[in-house]
Amino acid sequence: MTSSTEDAPVGLVSSVIYTSIAAAAAGLFLVATFSSDEYGSVARFGGAAWVFLLSMIILMPTVTPIVRRLLTGASK
Questions:
Q1: How much of the chain exceeds pLDDT 90, in percent?
Q2: Based on the structure, what is the number of domains in the chain?
Q3: pTM for the model
């Protein structure tokens, strides 16, 4: 069984990765909505927050095992 000190770098690296990807997705959403004048600021920023939240929900359980496998060298 692995200790929590061994999992600390995995958690830190994976959280940086999935937070960065989620922030980039929210940023792309903002760029897409600012490119047209059809949306108000509440829709723009609320939508960006929603995209960020959903991206985090999807990426957290996806990225962490991949990073753990890459950092520890373990196979499946």
A1: 74
A2: 1
A3: 0.83
4: in domain: no
Which tens digits make up the pLDDT trace of 19-40? Answer: 999 999 999 999 999 998 898 9
- Sign of the Cα pseudo-torsion (49, 51, 55, 58, in order): positive
Phi-psi region of 73 (alpha: psi -120 to 50; beta: other; left: phi over 0): left
The burial of 18, by beta-carbon neighbours within 10 Å (0-12 exposed, 13-18 middle, 19 or more buried), is given as: buried
Domain presence at residue 57: yes
Q: Tell me which residue range forms the domain holding 15.
A: 10-72
Q: Confirm whether 3 is domain-assigned.
A: no
The phi-psi region of residue 10 (left if phi > 0; otherwise alpha if psi is between -120 and 50; otherwise beta) is alpha
